[in-house]
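Blinded run. Sample ID left blank on purpose so nobody reads anything into the name before looking at the predicted structure. Input follows.
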Amino acid sequence: MKKAAAAVLFFFCIIVFSAVPPVLAHDGVTAEEASAGDMEDMRNFLLHLKSHQALVKGDDSQIEFRNALRTDNGVWRHGDTYVITVNKEEPGTSAAGDTIFFHAKYPSAVSRSLRDIPIFRELIAMVKEDGEPVCVQDSTGEYGNHICAAEDSDATESGVESSFIQIAGFDHKRREKAIDACPEFTAEDLRNRGWLSADMVDDEDSLVLYLEGVVEHVSEQLASGQQSGGVSLVRMIQLLSPLMPCWRDEPWESGSIYFYIVTDTEKMFGIFNGNSPQLQDKTLRLRDDNGVEVAERILEEVREEDNTPNRGFLTYLWDDPAVRGDEVVCEETTGRVSGPFPEDEEVFCEVGNPIPGRSPGTSVKRGYFIRTNFGIGETYYVVGSGIYPKPQGGGGGGGCAIAPGSGNELEGMAFNLFLITAVLFLATSRGRRPGAKLLAWGLWTRRKDRGRKG
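Blinded prediction complete.
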């Protein structure tokens, strides 16, 4: 009987472990080992990284791997040992290493440059096309001790589509150089094209016009010199990286108004976020404090075959950049967090960053979304933005009104008056932001297509 049980257990283990994806097996030097080791250990850590990169196929797997590179658990990141990805020099592009495509320590460093640091330039100049790691030693210890770099490429189902340089062991303070290469766009330029700048968005109608302009602008930038047939996710990030700093400034961003780009997949991984770079390479599969499954509901809206295909509105709770105290972030750094989804139990949570699985804020947001392929292939993305409706004084006789986006029928006005009264009562008698949650519930009860534009 014992032999039979042992045999069953043996075959069960074979089945389970054979089903584990190769990227989960770590049979090479880890970041923790490289951090405590010598130059050869850092070199082998980089080879370990490259071997895993070659096994990652598909957009979702690629972003999950990039997210794993940011997790401070000793495998791919440990203390001051982490991964930075920069561009390889190509015809008609900037010099090698001039643009950061991925940074495991500082997500907001994407699109910036480290070429003003002498030892960084020395390292990049040594990189060969054969893919073998090259290493330098920083005698001052200011940028690490053992630093290595190697050319690498992304692996896709259809073959290699882009090359880049992986760097390990290079640590720096927040002093990367901004890239001053933004296209000249003013608010007037946008208006002349029938678009709206972010500072002009104050209701649903203007939000729609703003986001339509964003989609056209991004499509034009991607189409410039880009071959047809689509691009890999890594290539997409490479193409957009030089523009990301531009999109965090006027005319594309203003106060609470910004836009973001996510993948049109179940987890909706972030490619760009105009307000929170730390949400890039992270899933939008989040649940807000009202129980709204944000990614699931957004996908339902943009995929629904109704009178507005590939478009939709949704009301949910989120972080308002103009409001302090509505953030939902990790209070302390921990290796395991409790979240609404099973996979969140294994996600690393860093102090001050959004909590995996939860919406990053508690302010009511009225979001608008457009599903598009940007005209460059069959892969689709979702571009989104939103306004933050709040109770406003109506002036005159001291009446009340809801911010734009809630309709203007007499019935709606009466309902809003009741809702605001309830919000004010609860806000003065209970804990943190109950009024916002009630307001979100109130907006949820409105008809789906009210105020929607085609």
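Unblinding after everyone has recorded impressions. The two ends are 69 Å apart (CA to CA).
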